[in-house]
Specification:
The chain is of the alpha/beta class. It is built from 14 helices and six strands. Strands 5-4-1-2-3-6 form a six-stranded mixed β-sheet.
């Protein structure tokens, strides 16, 4: 047997073994399982992972969630105002089609990887690209996402409000846990359309912020909450090899810019690139400012007392974002807000 075929066979065998041991799957980077397969063609990393997670008959219609977390470059503990977790859902086959067109678009500008913030400001691999060229690429990639993604969901957590929350010192979840809980609650709503037993696998960007978000999801799985949140296998992906994760990065970046503008009361209109993404079916999202954080804190405390296994976002207003419904974030006085909240 040729060496490349033998290595590919061994990689697939390893992947199947890990599928039967979910804990091992969570602890192992997919790149290690599929490294042999990726030698054969540029897109085989994403394709190989899809074929590992899904039966062939489900590749055209199953749901597969791609997530990317976004803060500014200083990180969560150095002054960023908001953490945004963006999620795009599509079938494995749709992600495969997206990857083909995505790489073709990147080839036209001479780059092999897309990072939304770099493209927007001319940094990183786009430092030698002119603004017109970068803007044209942004438009082209947004159109590719709209044609292939089935749903969009997001969660944003105000770091300042999180620290001011009255329950902050009484066990309120971390910003990453809140973002994870918010996104899984919206993806769970998608899964329930297919039946109570349907599960959606997740893939996370392996970057610094993505690793923290992944750990929050992993902890929920370890606590036995995957079933109630309709979570399938969770894994970390290499965004350099997965255009689907680069697409999630673009959506997370757009939501970050929009939420930041709202929080700063900048008066800026919604960016055209975000407006162009709105035709994707909206699964809803959550902006966790002080009000929702207080409500969530009280809800979690009640649930932990009544039923420790039931921990999902419940009875919180969903934030919808489309052409007719845009958000308006207003700063409020803390004392007045807490006095008005129901017990």
């Amino acid at each position: 047997m040729p060496r490349c075929h033998r290595e590919r066979s061994e990689a697939i065998s390893m992947a199947r073994t890990y599928l039967t041991h979910p804990v091992l799957l969570r602890q192992t980077r997919p790149s290690r399982l599929l490294s042999a397969a990726t030698e054969e063609r540029r897109d085989s990393y994403q394709q190989g992972l899809a074929r590992t997670l899904f039966p062939r008959a489900e590749l055209h219609y199953a749901d597969w969630a791609m997530l990317s977390a976004y803060l500014d470059e200083s990180g969560a503990h150095d002054g960023s105002k908001v953490l945004v977790l963006g999620c795009l859902v599509a079938s494995p086959r749709s992600w495969e089609v997206l990857a083909k067109h995505w790489r073709s678009a990147l080839d036209t500008v001479g780059v092999d990887e897309f990072h939304a913030s770099d493209c927007a400001v001319g940094g990183g691999k786009f430092r030698d690209s002119e603004k017109r060229e970068r803007d044209g690429l942004f438009v082209r990639l947004v159109n590719i996402i709209v044609k292939n993604a089935s749903y969009r969901a997001w969660t944003a957590v105000s770091l300042e409000d999180h620290q001011q929350c009255a329950h902050y010192s009484e066990g309120v979840p971390s910003v990453y846990a809140i973002a994870a809980l918010g996104c899984t609650s919206r993806v769970r709503a998608i899964a329930l359309q297919r039946g109570a037993d349907y599960r959606v696998p997740y893939v996370f960007d392996q970057g610094k912020v993505g690793r923290r978000a992944f750990r929050a999801f992993e902890k929920m799985a370890e606590q036995g909450r995957a079933g109630s949140l309709a979570m399938g296998a969770i894994s970390r992906g290499d965004r350099r090899e997965m255009p689907a994760l680069q697409a999630a990065d673009l959506f997370a970046y757009e939501m970050y810019r929009y939420i930041s503008d709202q929080m700063n009361d900048s008066g800026r209109a919604m960016r055209r690139s975000l407006g162009a993404l709105l035709p994707i079916r909206d699964a809803g999202g959550y902006f966790f400012g002080l009000q929702k954080l207080e409500l969530l804190g009280r809800s979690v405390r009640r649930q932990m007392t009544a039923d420790p296994d039931r921990q999902a976002v419940t009875n919180l207003p969903i934030d919808w974002l489309d052409k007719e419904r845009t958000m308006k974030i207003a700063r409020v006085d803390t004392a007045s807000l807490l006095a008005d909240l129901p017990e």
